[in-house]
Amino acid sequence: MTTRPPLVLTVAGSDSGGGAGIQADLKAMLALGVHGMSVLTAVTAQNSRGVHGVWELPEEAVRAQYRAVVDDIGVHAVKTGMLATAPLVETVAELLADTDAPVVVDPVGVSKHGDPLLAASALESVRKRLLPTATVATPNLDEVTQLTGVRVERETDMRTAAEAVLAYGPRWVLVKGGHLPTGAEAVDLLTDGTEEHWLRAPRHDNRHTHGTGCTLASAVAAGLARGLAVPEAVREAKAYVTGAIAAGFALGEGIGPVDHGWALRR
User: Where in the numbering of this chain does the Pyridoxamine kinase/Phosphomethylpyrimidine kinase domain appear (predicted)?
Assistant: First the structure.
């Protein structure tokens, strides 16, 4: 009998263009040797040029999907992405609080193209209900500002940003510094308030980076499901995403996706 791979559940919105959201999550999970499962929170009409429409699912549909998977199949890690509204954030937070598995929270606020994916009215629910469930929270710099008001303009500001996010209760926070003008390196900070891990990787001159945040959070969840400690899971995830960014390809007329299968074709 074939050995069952680790099980990872993504709770997120869809991307009809296939570069981000549920589609990116499942591709990354497959590439990293885990079995991906999904709870759809919203449907987006999306392509390389932006988000053209969003339709949230009812809370009962999200709850039913989650319970169907977790109660029968089980789960070794959960990743959350686009949750869209306060009622959906509250619903997912309630489900996560009752699940005995590590949780990676990607507090998605806007798309790569600048389109809003989280209602302003949902921010307090993210702060007070969702972040306390997180084993690892993975905000980018815009999401840090949206959640905490802290603006990161230089590398040294990332420590202040991490402290502000940790105040809401996640065990670890990974502040993603990819948008910082730090020259040849992309710098992230992982910390639990005691340990600090500064993660550096070459910055690739490639505009096709759609789905980077979804992919990184999914890769971290895959590592946790395989039993890795948080620092090791994050380190492996950053290496995977760095390769995916380097291999990102043009798609449509706008920003193309990272290449989730790059390592499979080496």
Answer: 15-259
Active site residue 256: no
For the cut 70, the answer to whether the pLDDT of residue 260 exceeds it is yes
* pTM exceeding the 0.70 threshold for the entire prediction: yes
Instruction: Choose the catalytic residue: 41, 91, 212, 215.
Output: 212
Q: Region 178-192: what's the mean pLDDT?
A: 86
Does 177 qualify as catalytic in the annotation?
no
Judge contact between 166 and 193, C-beta under 8 A.
yes
> Please, what is the Cα angle at 64 between 63 and 67, to 5 degrees?
85
pLDDT at 214: 96
Q: Can 44 be counted among the known catalytic residues? A: no
Residue 224's nearest CA partner among 164, 139, 136 is 136
Which domains are present in the chain? 7-260 (3.40.1190.20)
CA-CA distance, 48 to 151, in Å (whole number)?
Answer: 28
Burial pattern 212-243, b for ≥16 Cβ within 10 A else e, equals bbbbbbbbbbbbbbbebebbebbbbbbebbbb
Is 212 catalytic? The answer is yes
- pLDDT above 90 for 115: no
- DSSP string computed for 37-82: EEEEEEEEEEETTEEEEEEEPPHHHHHHHHHHHHHHT--SEEEE--
